[in-house]
């Protein structure tokens, strides 16, 4: 059974009578600024390439990713989204014992269970604001003979993070580490991205995509970075010819080159994240947890549940994520992402109205 992630906007529009474009989806964690205009314009000017097969080696796309990420082109693999890459890496390592953070993205557990791994959990504690304890992780790895660690950096849904140096300490234990950097571009990559470590550690696999920061989930483009030659050779042998379509190839090449767009998104997200921190801190019935992602985890402190709040907001065409399905969270926890200034202000207004009326 496939897990559902975020909201189905089409289903909600039918159920609540809204047009799709009227719904503000705070559950999907997608950059509200949309894709790079530079990339979109280039695509429009080259729509005739639909009649052309992509370059099977994706030389130009790999070069753009290499310049953007700092990875060596020979260490880059391409896929139809990051889930495909997770799957292949987990299958290659096929760990007997693996470690996950709790809470975390559910697909990691699904992939590990598919290879029969025994799964251990490093519980992130509310009293520590869900911060990741490096010493605890290393002790758990050593005391339980862990062979593989999978985590997102920043972690979803908590928004907490490890530095590159801390990740290096985990790699020094010798276990295989898969770092999902889906959200790292919303924060300081120079401090938190582990891509540079792939030059020194063959036991590291870094996965990224274009769905969230580049607002392009529809093209299904993901890329992985590793110096693990066994994985790279296996991936090359097993991947389908032209596994990335021509439009993903074209858009990918240009969006990774658009530095002005990247800076604009980064600055906007940081500004609006601070806006939310300031506004929510005025609400006595909600506690927020510091986040390095483009989303914020909150807990309701009064008698209401996240499900009740979600249902109330749906009637206003606002969609948040009820986080009760995450391990180590409760019916009081919810998450929302950063959208446009107008939508962000609307969400804050509705939260203030809802919690004031519930007194």
Automatic annotation (TrEMBL):
Keywords on record: Pyridoxal phosphate
The record, for Pfam families, names: Aminotran_1_2
Give the required cofactors. Answer: pyridoxal 5'-phosphate
Q: In what residue span(s) does the Aminotransferase class I/classII large domain sit?
A: 23-350
Identify a single GO molecular function assigned to this protein.
Answer: catalytic activity
Domain of life where this protein originates: Bacteria
**PANTHER family, alphabetically?**
HISTIDINOL-PHOSPHATE AMINOTRANSFERASE-RELATED, THREONINE-PHOSPHATE DECARBOXYLASE
Q: What is the official name of this protein in its record?
A: Threonine-phosphate decarboxylase
Record organism: Peptoniphilus asaccharolyticus DSM 20463
């Amino acid at each position: 059974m496939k897990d559902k992630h975020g909201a189905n906007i089409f289903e909600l529009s039918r159920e609540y009578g809204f047009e799709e474009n009227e719904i503000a989806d705070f559950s999907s964690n997608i950059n509200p600024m949309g894709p790079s205009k530079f990339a979109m314009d280039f695509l429009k000017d080259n729509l005739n390439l639909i009649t052309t097969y992509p370059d099977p080696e994706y030389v130009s796309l790999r070069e753009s990713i290499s310049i953007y990420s700092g990875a060596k082109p020979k260490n880059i693999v391409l896929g139809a989204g990051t889930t495909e890459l997770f799957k292949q890496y987990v299958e290659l390592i096929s760990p007997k014992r693996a470690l996950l953070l709790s809470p975390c993205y559910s697909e990691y557990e699904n992939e590990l269970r598919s290879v029969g791994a025994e799964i251990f959990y490093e519980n992130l504690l509310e009293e520590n604001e869900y911060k990741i304890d490096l010493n605890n992780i290393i002790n758990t790895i050593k005391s339980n003979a862990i062979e593989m660690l999978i985590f997102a950096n920043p972690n979803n849904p908590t928004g907490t993070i490890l530095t590159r140096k801390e990740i290096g300490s985990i790699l020094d234990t010798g276990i295989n580490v898969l770092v999902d950097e889906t959200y790292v571009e919303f924060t300081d990559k120079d401090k938190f991205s582990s891509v540079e470590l792939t030059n020194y550690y063959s036991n590291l696999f870094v996965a990224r995509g274009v769905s969230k920061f580049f607002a392009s989930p529809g093209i299904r483009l993901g890329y992985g970075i590793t110096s693990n030659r066994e994985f790279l050779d296996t991936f090359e042998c097993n991947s389908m010819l032209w596994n990335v379509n021509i439009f993903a190839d074209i858009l990918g090449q240009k969006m990774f080159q658009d530095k002005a767009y990247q800076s604009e998104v980064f600055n906007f997200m940081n500004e609006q994240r601070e806006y939310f921190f300031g506004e929510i801190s005025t609400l006595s019935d909600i506690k927020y947890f510091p986040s390095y992602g483009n989303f914020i985890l909150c807990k309701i402190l009064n008698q209401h549940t996240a499900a009740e709040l979600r249902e109330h907001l749906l009637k206003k065409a606002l969609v948040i994520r009820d986080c009760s399905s995450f391990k180590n969270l409760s019916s009081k926890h919810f998450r929302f992402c950063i959208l446009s200034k107008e939508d962000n202000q609307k969400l804050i207004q509705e939260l203030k109205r809802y919690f004031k009326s519930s007194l």
